[in-house]
Amino acid sequence: MTIAIYAQLAVLALIDSTSIGTLLIPLWLLLRPDAKRLAPRILLYLGVLAGFYLIVGILVLSGADWVIRGLGADSLTQIPAIQWAMTIGGGALLAYALFAGSGKKPAKAAVPAGRARDAAAGTGFEPGAGLEPAVPAAEAKWQQRIAKALRSPGGLVALAVIAGLLELPTMLPYLVAIGVLSNSTLALPAGIGVLAVYCLVMLLPALALLGLRVALGSRLDSVLQRVSSKMGRFASETLLWVAGIAGFLLLRAGLSALAPFAAWNPFK
Predict the structure, then answer these.
(1) Which pLDDT tens digit goes with each residue over 30-47?
(2) Which end of the chain has the lower number of beta carbons within 10 A, N or C?
(3) 189 close to 62: Cβ distance less than 8 angstroms
């Protein structure tokens, strides 16, 4: 493991830190008027989410380690079929990120004023005569889940598990990081330790915002509202960014293994 590989893992962890579960949901929790009182429950949510990621990572990394040892190979990337799969899969992901979803607008739902105040208290909505400003339907659904989850610590645990399960298909940066570790010379226990640090780095933005919210109180609300609004507006594009970055990394790794000296290979 080199410094460059650790830097790559840190970048992947920071990409993972911008997902709905790791940033948007904590932002919506922090925007509640009672966010300071809820700090322990927000920490509980983040801890359970990190634990979920770590368990998934351990299972995948252990399986990859078992396959590598079972094949008696130093690296799975030495297998031509794997090289072709990485190249084709990476190219497909990159093409999907570049061309999918162009011209589409996220569906929005108008939320009744009373329900919006109950389900999204402190998120910057101003009460209106009948309907609050339209919000994305997905965000409205998450706000309802958050309102139910805040009724008990068990609800926060369930919310974190639900967020983790729903993000499983978009854990591409995490899967790339696991692939990097499985292809390294680290023993399995050391690889698990690196995954634990990865999960901590993944939570750093949310933890930093929580610390600022506790220290500054409502003075931070305007900043959090702007960040939440912008993140929510572009939440539908998160998957495309993740797919594009993961596709680029897979394509580069595949071509570097498949044709390391070819003149047409931009990654040689």
Answers:
(1) 888 888 888 999 999 999
(2) C
(3) no
